[in-house]
Each structure stands twice: as C-alpha cells, then as structure tokens.
Amino acid sequence: MANSNLPRRIIKETQRLLSEPAPGISASPSEENMRYFNVMILGPAQSPYEGGVFKLELFLPEEYPMAAPKVRFLTKIYHPNIDKLGRICLDILKDKWSPALQIRTVLLSFQYPGSLECTKSR
C-alpha cells in the first residue's frame, strides 16, 4: 500500500482486511485508487444465496469515516433491498452510519440475508 496520502485509519483497516479476511469475504483495494475496493462475497450457507459468488464495489469517500462507504452489487441479485442497479438499502449505509463502524462491519452485514434492512426513504 503505497498511497501515503491516505488517512491512517484506511491503511489500518485495509491491512486488517488483507491479513485477517472475514470468512467468505474477499476485499482488496484497487492499485489505481486505494479508496476503491473489489469485493467478493460467498452466499451464506442455508440461504437462497448459498453457492453464489457475488461481486461488489466499495468506495470510501474523502469524508470517511464521518461518511459511510458507497457500496453496490455488481453481480445481479434478487433481493428486496437491492435495486436493479445494485444499490443497497441498508440502514448503516444511510442514517444509522457511525464513524465507529468499519469496512469489515459493512461487508459482514451483507452475508446475512436478514441484515439488509431498508430505511424508510431510499
């Protein structure tokens, strides 16, 4: 990770994602932009998504961690809280975001189908 203008927090979170990956989740930063992550998530066992491999993109805005990451599914998926463009309606990506949350927390929330709860407005 040679991007010296990145905040220390992003560097630490990225190092942890690479050295201690969450089970069923792969997230690696782009070589061109260390704020952009290529993500692969395995569908959780005993769910309609079991056996699936889902590609996502995650982008950390300049305001991160004060602002939530921008995340969307690149793989087409049928889910009531994911629109046809892959945008995710998840409370922690909207009004329930907290700077105490991390990239890892966000990615783990996608592995459990019941965790994608939509807020009142998209």
Automatic annotation (TrEMBL):
Keywords: ATP-binding, Nucleotide-binding, Transferase, Ubl conjugation pathway. InterPro entries: UBC (IPR000608), UBQ-conjugating_AS (IPR023313), UBQ-conjugating_enzyme/RWD (IPR016135). PROSITE patterns: UBC_1 (PS00183), UBC_2 (PS50127). It comes from the Eukaryota. GO terms for molecular function: ATP binding; transferase activity. Transmembrane segments: none annotated. The active site is at C89. The keyword Nucleotide-binding applies. Residues 5-122 form the UBC core domain. Belongs to the ubiquitin-conjugating enzyme family. This is UBC core domain-containing protein. It comes from Setaria italica (Foxtail millet). The gene is LOC101764355.
